[in-house]
Amino acid sequence: MKKVLVTGGLGFIGSHTVVELQEKGYEVVILDDLSNSSIDVLAGITAITGKAPIFEKLDLKEKAKVESFFEQHQDIDGVIHFAASKAVGESVEKPLLYYENNINTLVYVLKSILQLPTQNFIFSSSCTVYGQADEMPITESAPIKAAESPYGNTKQIGEEIIKDTCRSNTTLNAIALRYFNPIGAHSSTKIGELPIGVPQNLVPFITQTAAGLRQELSVFGNDYPTSDGTCVRDYIHVVDLAKAHVVALERLVSGNNADNYETFNVGTGTGSTVLEVIQSFEKVSGQKLNYKFAPRREGDVIQAFADTAKANTDLGWKAERNLDEALLSAWKWEKHLRNI
């Protein structure tokens, strides 16, 4: 049985990936500092898969503890690195927090991986590395523009660090998965997105508004050069995204990678405006959303949706679930949380 370390494994994407890994027969070890997640997620993962992953509470900013952990787990076959701060708006307000939490931790993890007999690394990257891309859909060869936010910059810098490390260490094999916008929840409603405090992402704010937790939804900007004036994003079901991590890991474990550093876009290939997301949610939930237009938010790009041809062809992965299905799963998860 292959042993996989998942950092940030109790977070939104991490927890869904742990489920998919366990269901494929992997032994999973989770590291999480619980700063933006809940220990309750562990019970949800266990309920779905019938097996409790190994869990250790650890802050990756503590270098000595990271080194000690890896010294005790030399039999790890792969690392999937999710642990990071991830809110665009917050990163504009607190840039140093983002540089410390997203860059320092990556360096500590990579340094420790280089001491392992088997060095396979999957990096949780983002379409924010493209900034405002010139052409849609966005291919992996699109130029990396100046980041629109410190969060986006940490993903750009992170990719550069990994690329440089792979160049100087041919034993290290890495894949950066550039996510578009993950939404939805596991069909069991045992795990899903659990934002702490006011949600920074659109869909949990939608579901909390529909559930009565929020008075109204703010749509940031209605004067963008898009079909209805609102931003366009590529919303991907989190389970599809989780499956992409398993496929990417298997590519490295089996030695099928074309290079020791590769990048893949992970999206649906379809762009949806904020208003289209609201309309889809209202359709699948039967709820009328209370929303208002607000000024543009600093750090937001106009539109971003993926060209997924490379992931489809080289990874053999394709998103299977559409926007309606993803939003319905998000609503079922919200109702489960609120006992509605």
TrEMBL record:
EC number of this enzyme: 5.1.3.2
GO biological process: galactose metabolic process
Domain of life the protein comes from: Bacteria
Short name of any one Pfam family annotated for the protein: GDP_Man_Dehyd
Molecular-function GO terms, alphabetical: UDP-glucose 4-epimerase activity
Pathway: Carbohydrate metabolism; galactose metabolism
Catalysed reaction, written as an equation: UDP-alpha-D-glucose = UDP-alpha-D-galactose
Keyword entries, A-Z: Carbohydrate metabolism, Isomerase, NAD
Gene3D superfamilies linked: NAD(P)-binding Rossmann-like Domain (3.40.50.720), UDP-galactose 4-epimerase, domain 1 (3.90.25.10)
GO cellular component: cytosol
Matching InterPro entries: NAD(P)-bd_dom, NAD(P)-bd_dom_sf, UDP_G4E
Domain NAD(P)-binding, chain residue ranges per copy: 5-326
Family: Belongs to the NAD(P)-dependent epimerase/dehydratase family.
Name assigned to this protein: UDP-glucose 4-epimerase
Source organism of the structure: Gelidibacter sediminis
